[in-house]
């Protein structure tokens, strides 16, 4: 099946070429980062995690959201999701792969990364996160590849894969819960010290991940002869609506607890993020735009459900995706460090290195995704044709 | 039985993964970690520090303890505060003890310098979160760093509620001048986290920490707080002392006499 990635039309090669080109600057900047150390990033003693760990956190959510199509198809036997399941699982594969690359990019001593396996530390959530992510990567790759092989050969899916599929469902929830636990268990960071973090992560993941999946499917529908089906995509969009409402509700809950209790440490980070604190607030507009996009995306999704044309659906999903991205892929991680343990404020903005390396990692992820989707589409088109 | 390349690769892959996973499980369950390896010192020892802020405030421009530590531990002087390495340093009272400041607190008290360092918590969050056991607590309470094992993930920096940990954003060897390097103590590499170690290397040979020794005002008292007859225990008797963010349950071992 792998040979399918080697043949394609002009568009396919242009996309591959574009993604490869996007990788180049990042490689250059990463080499510099290895040579000079993380001083070439915008991170500091006070804001010691930045864009890399934020992207990692956001992408774990995208990966986990594959269950949004897996559960209806495998647990509830809703056949219409069959056209989306493998696409969802391959999106998870590429997202986890990007997660691992983002962690690697963030390490001060990346060549020692195997110490995580050499000195396993079950008291560290980072250890469990590594186990969960690697396990999830293998699960999705094995499940999707096996199902696709069966489809290719025109035989039924082998029975041994069923327990793995069932395992992959709680596993998906666990990867994002464990990622939330990375933050929610730290005593000195009030923004993160909230028991709702795990639930909020999953809600925002189920809003952003499926949004991306639908958008990808719309692209597939437009540029290839494989049609995942508009009713199917609209069904997924309904799940996005629910998840998005829950996510917005959770944000209100966070504000309520912090502001009504009046505890300064719990209020400060939110104040910094949404209103600015003592004149500092480089993220204020991003966070506000995130809220606006979230509410607008929700309204758009509610209105589009009766429409034939997909323009409003597309625009709404883009809004939802970026709303969650700004919140989780930017504000959440950085905001946790502000104010500092000394109640001072050190602002953060990503350096060119971080932006270039991040783009490069996204390019790698989308390259993997493109190739995996290419295989699926080629097989489906030839089977259906 | 015939085995083709595809099957061989599959089986070899499965065998490899199970070997690694098996080894990890074995280590996890056996508990063969660095804590048990180093658990050899006397359990009746808990090193602690009592800082007398009055004595310290008497000489506001003094930084003897800080220079002694920096010199002894090859801590580089970095001008950019965003990239600083700090083992022991001064911060104003208001930012060290925000919960003990109110609107009527004298400006002189608010801005008074307080010496801060790693608190060597009894319940250290940094140790809890480290994914590789590169930071651990000795039986005598000192929270240590293994700069050779640290992968530079900085999870400990996020976990520390005191901002006591510093990261080597660049190679410290490029900043330290060759003549100033203390050959007795290792120089770190870029990409690892470091912090105050209560001068473990000196305590183990019966000496006092460098900062304690350097202070001409004798404002820092160091000793075994588990020993009821120790000087630090006698000094604490009947005194009201502060500890940073004690409500977090970390049980810091630096006490402040106001």
Question: Can you describe this structure?
Answer:
Chain A has 385 residues and is mainly α. Chain A has one domain: Formate dehydrogenase/DMSO reductase fold, CATH 1.20.1630.10. Chain A is 73% helix and 0% strand. In chain A, helix 1 runs antiparallel to helix 13 (352-384), helix 2 crosses helix 8 (197-223) and helix 4 (82-106) packs antiparallel against helix 13. The longest helix of chain A has 33 residues, at 352-384. The mean pLDDT of chain A is 92. With 258 residues, chain B is an alpha+beta fold. Chain B has two domains: 1-32; 43-257, 2-Layer Sandwich (Alpha-Beta Plaits). Chain B contains eleven helices and ten strands. Chain B has helices at residues 5-30, 34-38, 53-57, 64-72, 93-96, 107-110, 125-129, 155-159, 200-203, 210-214, 231-236, and strands at 47-52, 88-92, 113-117, 135-137, 143-145, 166-167, 193-194, 220-224, 241-242, 254-257. Chain B is elongated and about 85 Å long.
The general outline of chain A is globular
Look up the CATH topology of the largest domain in chain B: Alpha-Beta Plaits
* Named CATH topology of chain A: Formate dehydrogenase/DMSO reductase fold
Kindly provide the radius of gyration of chain A, computed on alpha-carbon positions and rounded to a whole number of angstroms: 21 Å
Q: Can you identify the CATH class of chain A?
A: Mainly Alpha
Secondary structure: helix percent of chain B: 25-40%
Strand order of the largest sheet of chain B: 8-1-10-9
What class would the helix/strand composition of chain A place it in?
mainly alpha
Question: What count of structural domains of chain A?
Answer: 1
Q: What is the terminal-to-terminal distance of chain B?
A: 81 Å
**Percent in helix of chain A:** over 70%
CATH-derived architecture of the largest domain in chain B: 2-Layer Sandwich
Mean pLDDT of chain B: 89
The shape of chain B, in one word, is elongated
């Amino acid at each position: 099946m792998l040979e399918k990635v080697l043949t394609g039309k002009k568009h396919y090669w242009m996309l591959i070429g574009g993604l490869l080109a996007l990788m180049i600057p990042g490689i250059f900047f990463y080499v510099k980062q290895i040579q000079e150390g993380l001083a070439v990033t915008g991170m500091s003693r006070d804001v010691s995690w930045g864009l890399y760990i934020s992207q990692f956190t956001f992408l774990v959510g995208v990966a986990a959201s594959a269950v949004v199509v897996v559960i209806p198809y495998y647990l509830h036997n809703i056949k219409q999701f069959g056209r989306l399941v493998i696409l969802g699982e391959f999106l998870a594969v590429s997202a986890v792969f990007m997660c691992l690359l983002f962690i690697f990019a963030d390490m001060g001593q990346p060549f020692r990364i195997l110490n995580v396996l050499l000195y396993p530390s079950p008291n560290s959530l980072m250890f469990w996160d590594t186990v969960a992510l690697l396990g999830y990567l293998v699960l999705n790759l094995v499940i999707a590849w096996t199902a696709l092989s069966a489809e290719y050969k025109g035989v039924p899916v082998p029975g041994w894969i069923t327990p793995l599929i069932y395992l992959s469902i709680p596993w998906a929830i666990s990867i994002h819960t464990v990622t939330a636990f990375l933050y929610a268990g730290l005593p000195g960071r009030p923004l993160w010290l909230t028991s709702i973090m795990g639930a909020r992560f999953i809600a925002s993941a189920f809003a952003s991940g499926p949004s991306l999946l639908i958008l990808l499917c719309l692209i597939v529908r437009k540029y290839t002869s494989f049609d995942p089906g508009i009713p199917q995509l609209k069904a997924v969009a309904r799940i996005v609506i629910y998840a998005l409402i829950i996510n917005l509700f959770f944000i209100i809950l966070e504000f309520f607890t912090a502001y009504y209790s009046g505890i300064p440490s719990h209020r400060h980070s939110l104040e910094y993020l949404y209103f600015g604190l003592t004149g500092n607030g480089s993220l204020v507009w991003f966070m506000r735009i995130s809220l606006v996009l979230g509410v607008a995306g929700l309204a758009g999704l509610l209105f589009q459900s009766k429409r034939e044309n997909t323009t409003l659906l597309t625009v709404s999903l883009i809004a939802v995706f970026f709303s969650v991205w700004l919140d989780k892929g930017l504000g959440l991680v950085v905001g946790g460090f502000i104010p500092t343990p000394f109640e001072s404020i050190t602002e953060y903005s990503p350096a060119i290195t971080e932006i270039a390396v991040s783009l490069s990692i996204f390019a790698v992820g989308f390259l993997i995704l493109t190739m995996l989707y290419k295989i699926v589409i080629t097989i489906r088109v030839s089977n259906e044709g | 039985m015939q085995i083709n390349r595809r099957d061989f690769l599959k089986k070899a892959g499965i065998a490899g993964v199970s070997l690694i996973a098996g080894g990890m499980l074995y280590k996890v369950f056996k508990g063969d970690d660095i804590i048990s390896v180093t658990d050899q010192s006397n359990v009746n020892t808990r090193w602690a520090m009592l800082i007398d802020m009055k004595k310290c405030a008497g000489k506001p421009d003094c930084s003897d303890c800080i220079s002694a530590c920096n010199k002894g531990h090859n801590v580089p002087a970095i001008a950019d505060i965003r990239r600083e390495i700090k083992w022991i340093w001064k911060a104003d009272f208001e930012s060290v003890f925000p919960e003990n400041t109110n609107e009527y607190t004298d400006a002189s008290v608010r801005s008074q310098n307080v010496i801060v360092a790693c608190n060597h918590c009894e319940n250290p969050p940094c140790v809890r979160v480290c994914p590789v056991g590169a930071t651990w607590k000795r039986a005598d309470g000192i929270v240590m760093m293994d700069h050779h094992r640290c992968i530079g993930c900085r999870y400990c920096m996020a976990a520390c509620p005191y901002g006591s940990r510093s990261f080597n954003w660049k190679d410290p060897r490029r900043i330290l001048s060759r003549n100033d390097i203390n050959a007795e103590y290792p120089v770190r590499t870029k990409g690892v986290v470091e912090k105050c170690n209560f001068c473990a290397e000196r305590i183990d040979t019966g000496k006092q920490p460098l900062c304690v020794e350097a202070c001409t005002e004798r404002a820092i008292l160091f000793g075994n707080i588990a020993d009821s007859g120790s000087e630090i225990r006698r000094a604490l008797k009947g005194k009201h002392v502060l500890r940073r963010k004690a409500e977090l349950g970390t049980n810091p071992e630096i006490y402040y006499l106001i």
